[in-house]
Amino acid sequence: MRGVVMHAAGDVRVEDLPMPTVTEPTDAVIRLAATCVCGSDLWPYRGADEIRRPRPMGHEYVGIVEAVGSDVMTVKPGDFVVGSFIASDNTCEICRSGYQSGCVHRVGMSGAQAEYLRVPLADGTLVATPEQPEAELVPSLLAASDVLGTGWFAAAAAQVGPGKTVAVVGDGAVGLLGVLAAREMGAERIIAFSRHADRQALAREFGATDIVTERGDDGAAVVKEMTHGLGAHSVIEAVGTQEAMLQAINSTRAGGHVGFVGVSHDVEIPGRLLFGSHVALHGGPAPVRRYLPELIDLIRQRRIDPGKVFDLALPLEDAAEAYRAMDERRAIKALLQV
Protein backbone atom coordinates (compact mmCIF):
# COMPACT_ATOMS: atom_id res chain seq x y z
CA MET A 1 0.00 0.00 0.00
CA ARG A 2 1.00 3.65 -0.26
CA GLY A 3 1.65 5.75 2.80
CA VAL A 4 3.31 8.97 3.97
CA VAL A 5 6.70 8.79 5.70
CA MET A 6 8.66 11.70 7.17
CA HIS A 7 12.41 11.11 6.89
CA ALA A 8 13.64 14.43 8.26
CA ALA A 9 12.45 17.98 8.79
CA GLY A 10 10.86 19.12 5.55
CA ASP A 11 11.34 15.69 3.94
CA VAL A 12 7.96 14.01 3.37
CA ARG A 13 7.63 11.11 0.94
CA VAL A 14 4.87 8.77 -0.20
CA GLU A 15 6.22 5.23 -0.28
CA ASP A 16 5.24 1.59 -0.61
CA LEU A 17 4.62 0.24 2.88
CA PRO A 18 3.62 -3.19 4.24
CA MET A 19 -0.11 -3.87 4.22
CA PRO A 20 -1.39 -3.80 7.82
CA THR A 21 -2.99 -6.97 9.16
CA VAL A 22 -4.86 -8.06 12.25
CA THR A 23 -2.13 -9.01 14.73
CA GLU A 24 -4.09 -8.96 18.00
CA PRO A 25 -7.62 -10.26 18.64
CA THR A 26 -8.69 -6.69 19.55
CA ASP A 27 -7.47 -5.18 16.24
CA ALA A 28 -9.36 -3.92 13.22
CA VAL A 29 -7.96 -3.04 9.81
CA ILE A 30 -9.71 -0.26 7.94
CA ARG A 31 -9.52 0.99 4.38
CA LEU A 32 -9.17 4.76 4.63
CA ALA A 33 -11.84 6.89 3.01
CA ALA A 34 -9.94 10.09 3.81
CA THR A 35 -7.11 11.31 5.99
CA CYS A 36 -5.36 14.63 6.54
CA VAL A 37 -2.39 16.60 7.79
CA CYS A 38 -2.59 17.84 11.39
CA GLY A 39 -1.11 21.04 12.75
CA SER A 40 0.84 18.88 15.20
CA ASP A 41 2.48 17.14 12.22
CA LEU A 42 4.16 20.46 11.48
CA TRP A 43 6.25 20.32 14.67
CA PRO A 44 8.54 17.56 13.31
CA TYR A 45 8.21 18.95 9.79
CA ARG A 46 9.69 22.23 11.03
CA GLY A 47 12.37 20.49 13.07
CA ALA A 48 10.89 21.24 16.50
CA ASP A 49 10.52 17.50 17.22
CA GLU A 50 13.47 15.23 16.53
CA ILE A 51 13.05 12.50 13.93
CA ARG A 52 15.44 9.65 14.77
CA ARG A 53 14.18 7.29 12.06
CA PRO A 54 11.71 7.41 9.16
CA ARG A 55 8.27 7.97 10.69
CA PRO A 56 4.93 6.88 9.17
CA MET A 57 2.68 9.90 9.55
CA GLY A 58 -0.95 10.59 10.34
CA HIS A 59 -3.39 10.04 13.18
CA GLU A 60 -6.73 11.29 11.82
CA TYR A 61 -8.84 8.80 9.92
CA VAL A 62 -12.21 7.56 8.76
CA GLY A 63 -12.85 4.52 6.66
CA ILE A 64 -14.47 1.16 6.10
CA VAL A 65 -13.66 -1.87 8.23
CA GLU A 66 -11.92 -4.57 6.20
CA ALA A 67 -11.14 -7.14 8.91
CA VAL A 68 -11.46 -7.55 12.67
CA GLY A 69 -9.87 -9.71 15.33
CA SER A 70 -11.74 -12.48 17.10
CA ASP A 71 -12.49 -10.35 20.19
CA VAL A 72 -13.95 -7.36 18.34
CA MET A 73 -17.70 -7.07 18.91
CA THR A 74 -18.85 -3.50 18.21
CA VAL A 75 -17.71 -3.05 14.60
CA LYS A 76 -17.69 -5.45 11.66
CA PRO A 77 -16.40 -5.57 8.09
CA GLY A 78 -18.28 -3.11 5.92
CA ASP A 79 -18.95 -0.59 8.70
CA PHE A 80 -17.96 3.02 8.13
CA VAL A 81 -16.08 4.11 11.24
CA VAL A 82 -14.56 7.17 12.87
CA GLY A 83 -11.71 6.69 15.31
CA SER A 84 -9.73 8.70 17.82
CA PHE A 85 -6.07 9.67 17.47
CA ILE A 86 -5.44 7.69 20.68
CA ALA A 87 -6.65 4.10 20.86
CA SER A 88 -8.29 3.17 24.15
CA ASP A 89 -10.08 0.19 25.64
CA ASN A 90 -12.96 2.46 26.81
CA THR A 91 -13.48 0.17 29.81
CA CYS A 92 -10.72 1.00 32.32
CA GLU A 93 -11.41 3.29 35.25
CA ILE A 94 -9.80 6.28 33.52
CA CYS A 95 -11.84 5.73 30.35
CA ARG A 96 -15.05 5.42 32.34
CA SER A 97 -14.29 8.80 33.92
CA GLY A 98 -14.28 10.33 30.42
CA TYR A 99 -10.54 10.53 29.79
CA GLN A 100 -9.96 7.86 27.15
CA SER A 101 -6.79 9.64 26.02
CA GLY A 102 -5.36 8.68 29.43
CA CYS A 103 -6.46 5.04 29.15
CA VAL A 104 -4.17 2.69 31.04
CA HIS A 105 -3.79 0.68 27.80
CA ARG A 106 -3.70 3.66 25.43
CA VAL A 107 -1.88 3.47 22.11
CA GLY A 108 -0.97 6.59 20.13
CA MET A 109 -2.12 6.22 16.55
CA SER A 110 0.27 6.73 13.66
CA GLY A 111 0.46 5.78 10.01
CA ALA A 112 -3.03 7.01 9.13
CA GLN A 113 -1.83 9.00 6.10
CA ALA A 114 -2.09 5.84 4.06
CA GLU A 115 -4.48 3.59 2.20
CA TYR A 116 -5.01 1.15 5.08
CA LEU A 117 -4.60 1.33 8.85
CA ARG A 118 -4.46 -1.13 11.73
CA VAL A 119 -6.45 0.13 14.70
CA PRO A 120 -5.67 -1.51 18.05
CA LEU A 121 -8.33 -1.74 20.77
CA ALA A 122 -10.95 -1.41 18.05
CA ASP A 123 -14.00 -1.83 20.31
CA GLY A 124 -12.93 1.08 22.50
CA THR A 125 -11.62 3.30 19.72
CA LEU A 126 -13.89 3.07 16.67
CA VAL A 127 -17.46 4.33 16.40
CA ALA A 128 -19.54 3.12 13.46
CA THR A 129 -21.99 5.43 11.72
CA PRO A 130 -25.53 4.04 11.44
CA GLU A 131 -25.22 4.02 7.64
CA GLN A 132 -22.69 4.70 4.93
CA PRO A 133 -22.37 8.50 5.00
CA GLU A 134 -22.94 10.67 1.98
CA ALA A 135 -19.70 11.85 0.38
CA GLU A 136 -20.18 15.46 1.48
CA LEU A 137 -20.21 14.38 5.14
CA VAL A 138 -16.86 12.56 5.01
CA PRO A 139 -14.69 15.68 5.63
CA SER A 140 -16.75 16.60 8.69
CA LEU A 141 -16.57 13.06 10.06
CA LEU A 142 -12.81 13.14 9.48
CA ALA A 143 -12.62 16.38 11.47
CA ALA A 144 -14.35 14.59 14.36
CA SER A 145 -11.41 12.17 14.55
CA ASP A 146 -9.20 14.89 16.05
CA VAL A 147 -9.59 18.61 15.46
CA LEU A 148 -13.32 18.84 16.17
CA GLY A 149 -13.07 16.56 19.20
CA THR A 150 -10.05 18.50 20.41
CA GLY A 151 -11.77 21.86 19.98
CA TRP A 152 -14.80 20.44 21.78
CA PHE A 153 -12.69 19.23 24.69
CA ALA A 154 -10.93 22.60 24.87
CA ALA A 155 -14.27 24.37 25.20
CA ALA A 156 -15.46 21.89 27.82
CA ALA A 157 -12.19 22.20 29.77
CA ALA A 158 -12.58 25.99 29.68
CA GLN A 159 -16.10 25.54 31.08
CA VAL A 160 -17.78 27.35 28.20
CA GLY A 161 -21.48 27.85 28.76
CA PRO A 162 -24.49 30.10 28.22
CA GLY A 163 -23.90 33.76 28.93
CA LYS A 164 -20.12 33.48 28.98
CA THR A 165 -17.47 35.37 27.05
CA VAL A 166 -14.95 33.08 25.38
CA ALA A 167 -11.60 33.96 23.82
CA VAL A 168 -9.81 31.60 21.43
CA VAL A 169 -6.03 31.76 21.04
CA GLY A 170 -5.03 30.11 17.75
CA ASP A 171 -6.73 30.30 14.35
CA GLY A 172 -5.75 26.88 13.06
CA ALA A 173 -8.28 24.10 12.63
CA VAL A 174 -8.48 23.32 16.36
CA GLY A 175 -8.95 26.96 17.35
CA LEU A 176 -11.58 27.50 14.67
CA LEU A 177 -13.47 24.41 15.79
CA GLY A 178 -13.11 25.61 19.37
CA VAL A 179 -15.10 28.63 18.18
CA LEU A 180 -17.74 26.30 16.74
CA ALA A 181 -17.84 24.29 19.97
CA ALA A 182 -18.23 27.45 22.04
CA ARG A 183 -21.17 28.48 19.88
CA GLU A 184 -22.81 25.07 20.29
CA MET A 185 -22.29 25.25 24.06
CA GLY A 186 -24.17 28.54 24.21
CA ALA A 187 -21.44 31.15 24.66
CA GLU A 188 -22.78 34.70 24.46
CA ARG A 189 -19.62 36.30 23.08
CA ILE A 190 -16.76 34.59 21.25
CA ILE A 191 -13.52 36.49 20.62
CA ALA A 192 -11.19 34.94 18.05
CA PHE A 193 -7.54 35.97 17.80
CA SER A 194 -6.56 36.01 14.12
CA ARG A 195 -4.54 38.05 11.64
CA HIS A 196 -5.59 36.17 8.50
CA ALA A 197 -8.66 37.24 6.52
CA ASP A 198 -9.66 33.71 5.43
CA ARG A 199 -9.45 32.38 8.97
CA GLN A 200 -11.27 35.40 10.36
CA ALA A 201 -14.10 34.78 7.89
CA LEU A 202 -14.39 31.11 8.88
CA ALA A 203 -14.23 32.02 12.57
CA ARG A 204 -17.19 34.35 12.07
CA GLU A 205 -19.05 31.66 10.14
CA PHE A 206 -18.47 29.26 13.03
CA GLY A 207 -19.78 31.79 15.57
CA ALA A 208 -17.12 34.35 16.48
CA THR A 209 -18.64 37.70 17.42
CA ASP A 210 -15.34 39.61 17.61
CA ILE A 211 -11.91 39.40 15.98
CA VAL A 212 -8.72 40.58 17.70
CA THR A 213 -5.57 40.89 15.58
CA GLU A 214 -3.15 41.71 18.39
CA ARG A 215 -1.09 38.95 20.01
CA GLY A 216 0.67 38.31 23.29
CA ASP A 217 0.30 40.91 26.01
CA ASP A 218 -1.22 43.35 23.53
CA GLY A 219 -3.91 40.82 22.58
CA ALA A 220 -4.69 40.08 26.23
CA ALA A 221 -4.97 43.81 26.91
CA VAL A 222 -7.53 44.17 24.13
CA VAL A 223 -9.64 41.37 25.60
CA LYS A 224 -9.47 43.00 29.02
CA GLU A 225 -10.55 46.31 27.48
CA MET A 226 -13.46 44.60 25.70
CA THR A 227 -14.64 43.05 28.97
CA HIS A 228 -14.55 46.10 31.23
CA GLY A 229 -11.10 45.23 32.54
CA LEU A 230 -12.11 41.73 33.69
CA GLY A 231 -11.11 39.31 30.96
CA ALA A 232 -12.97 36.39 29.40
CA HIS A 233 -14.74 33.75 31.47
CA SER A 234 -13.31 30.97 29.29
CA VAL A 235 -10.20 30.89 27.10
CA ILE A 236 -9.14 28.20 24.64
CA GLU A 237 -5.39 27.82 24.00
CA ALA A 238 -4.87 25.96 20.73
CA VAL A 239 -1.26 26.70 19.80
CA GLY A 240 1.17 25.21 22.32
CA THR A 241 3.79 27.98 22.58
CA GLN A 242 4.91 30.03 25.54
CA GLU A 243 3.43 33.22 24.09
CA ALA A 244 0.08 31.55 23.44
CA MET A 245 -0.19 30.12 26.95
CA LEU A 246 0.65 33.42 28.63
CA GLN A 247 -1.72 35.22 26.28
CA ALA A 248 -4.47 32.79 27.29
CA ILE A 249 -3.86 33.16 31.02
CA ASN A 250 -3.63 36.95 30.80
CA SER A 251 -6.86 37.10 28.77
CA THR A 252 -8.79 35.25 31.50
CA ARG A 253 -10.63 36.90 34.38
CA ALA A 254 -10.06 35.94 37.99
CA GLY A 255 -12.04 32.77 38.58
CA GLY A 256 -12.04 31.95 34.87
CA HIS A 257 -10.84 28.83 33.08
CA VAL A 258 -8.29 28.07 30.37
CA GLY A 259 -8.71 24.94 28.26
CA PHE A 260 -5.33 24.17 26.68
CA VAL A 261 -5.00 21.68 23.85
CA GLY A 262 -2.07 23.05 21.83
CA VAL A 263 0.76 20.51 21.93
CA SER A 264 3.11 22.21 24.39
CA HIS A 265 6.63 23.09 23.26
CA ASP A 266 8.90 24.77 25.81
CA VAL A 267 5.96 26.16 27.79
CA GLU A 268 6.77 27.27 31.32
CA ILE A 269 4.21 29.01 33.51
CA PRO A 270 5.64 31.34 36.17
CA GLY A 271 4.38 30.19 39.53
CA ARG A 272 3.69 33.72 40.72
CA LEU A 273 1.51 34.42 37.66
CA LEU A 274 -0.46 31.23 38.18
CA PHE A 275 -0.86 31.84 41.89
CA GLY A 276 -1.98 35.43 41.52
CA SER A 277 -4.28 35.00 38.54
CA HIS A 278 -7.00 32.84 40.14
CA VAL A 279 -7.21 31.12 36.75
CA ALA A 280 -7.92 27.38 36.46
CA LEU A 281 -5.99 25.42 33.82
CA HIS A 282 -7.19 22.14 32.35
CA GLY A 283 -6.35 20.39 29.11
CA GLY A 284 -3.97 18.03 27.38
CA PRO A 285 -4.58 15.37 24.73
CA ALA A 286 -8.30 15.41 24.03
CA PRO A 287 -10.39 12.36 24.94
CA VAL A 288 -11.97 12.42 21.49
CA ARG A 289 -13.63 9.00 21.96
CA ARG A 290 -15.76 10.53 24.72
CA TYR A 291 -17.38 12.94 22.27
CA LEU A 292 -17.55 10.89 19.07
CA PRO A 293 -21.15 9.63 19.36
CA GLU A 294 -22.46 13.15 20.00
CA LEU A 295 -20.33 14.74 17.28
CA ILE A 296 -21.21 12.11 14.69
CA ASP A 297 -24.89 12.68 15.43
CA LEU A 298 -24.57 16.47 15.08
CA ILE A 299 -22.79 16.01 11.75
CA ARG A 300 -25.36 13.51 10.46
CA GLN A 301 -28.15 15.94 11.40
CA ARG A 302 -26.19 18.65 9.53
CA ARG A 303 -26.31 20.89 12.59
CA ILE A 304 -22.58 21.50 12.29
CA ASP A 305 -20.21 21.46 9.31
CA PRO A 306 -16.68 21.21 10.74
CA GLY A 307 -15.38 19.93 7.42
CA LYS A 308 -15.15 23.54 6.27
CA VAL A 309 -11.72 23.72 7.92
CA PHE A 310 -10.42 21.66 5.01
CA ASP A 311 -9.64 24.35 2.47
CA LEU A 312 -7.26 22.19 0.45
CA ALA A 313 -7.86 18.66 -0.87
CA LEU A 314 -5.09 16.72 -2.59
CA PRO A 315 -4.44 13.11 -3.57
CA LEU A 316 -2.43 11.08 -1.07
CA GLU A 317 0.46 11.06 -3.54
CA ASP A 318 0.71 14.86 -3.18
CA ALA A 319 1.19 14.76 0.60
CA ALA A 320 4.43 16.74 0.40
CA GLU A 321 2.56 19.68 -1.12
CA ALA A 322 -0.12 19.38 1.58
CA TYR A 323 2.58 19.76 4.24
CA ARG A 324 4.15 22.71 2.42
CA ALA A 325 0.81 24.47 2.05
CA MET A 326 0.03 24.19 5.76
CA ASP A 327 3.57 25.10 6.80
CA GLU A 328 3.40 28.24 4.63
CA ARG A 329 -0.12 29.02 5.90
CA ARG A 330 -1.55 28.75 2.39
CA ALA A 331 -4.01 26.22 3.81
CA ILE A 332 -5.80 25.95 7.14
CA LYS A 333 -5.98 22.17 6.91
CA ALA A 334 -5.22 19.80 4.05
CA LEU A 335 -7.37 16.75 3.34
CA LEU A 336 -5.69 13.81 1.62
CA GLN A 337 -7.89 11.84 -0.75
CA VAL A 338 -7.23 8.12 -0.62
- Which regions have little confidence, pLDDT < 50, spanning 5+ residues? none
- What level of helicity do the residues show? 25-40%
Largest sheet: 7 strands, mixed
Tell me the structural class: alpha/beta
Number of discrete helical segments: 12
Summarize the helix and strand pattern as letters: EEEHEEEEHEEHEHHEHEHEHEHEHEHEHE
Radius of gyration: 19 Å
- What is the 3D form? globular
> Which percent range describes the beta-strand content?
25-35%
Question: What would you note in describing this structure?
Answer:
With 338 residues, the chain is of the alpha/beta class. The chain is built from 12 helices and 18 strands. The chain has helices spanning 42-45, 93-96, 122-125, 138-144, 147-157, 173-184, 197-206, 216-226, 242-250, 271-277, 288-300, 319-327; strands spanning 2-8, 11-16, 28-36, 55-56, 61-68, 80-83, 86-87, 107-108, 116-119, 126-128, 165-169, 189-193, 210-212, 232-237, 252-260, 280-283, 312-315, 334-337. The strands form 4 sheets. Strands 3, 5, 6, 9, 10, 17 and 18 form a 7-stranded mixed beta sheet that branches. Helix 5 (147-157) packs across helix 11, helix 6 (173-184) packs parallel to helix 7 (197-206) and helix 8 (216-226) runs parallel beside helix 9 (242-250). The protein is globular and about 60 Å long.
